[in-house]
């Protein structure tokens, strides 16, 4: 009878030392893995802007290549090409400042001058060369409803900002980056030479 009581009185479970070891291991895993998970958002935002810039640069190159392949066509004496069903007007050659011909600047004959880039012209290029492009605005009050925000500089560059990376005021609205490349993650399009460059801030 004592043997039966001895067997039934024994309980299985973790000893205090085993619990301490398990808690220590979980603590070490948390310390090493948690910072990695915190960096995922930043990495996703960087990948987003780099991917969009890559797609945009490819579109610019394809427009130029099609224009060259078709023998540099003109419409109303302006460089122009129909790209994916949309007529785009392209830069005209210029010596001062130097402008290379054949890069997209808009969808109207008056857009062919790269020395007068506006946010509206940048939006036309964005929508003209990208298939199913991300939403884009030039109005800072509407930026929170869009993925990208566009501004221009005095050097006639288009700057496309990832809205998630822009500074916000106390009301949660974005602060207009005013054409700065040192604010938020962005990429810059220079229609004078077709160059697209990425800035991670």
TrEMBL record:
Matches recorded under PROSITE patterns: PROKAR_NTER_METHYL
Which keywords describe this protein according to UniProt? Membrane, Transmembrane, Transmembrane helix
Annotated InterPro entries: N_methyl_site (IPR012902), Pilin-like (IPR045584)
One of this protein's Pfam families, by short name? N_methyl
TM spans (from-to): 12-34
Which branch of life, at top level?
Bacteria
In Swiss-Prot or TrEMBL terms, this protein is called Type II secretion system GspH family protein
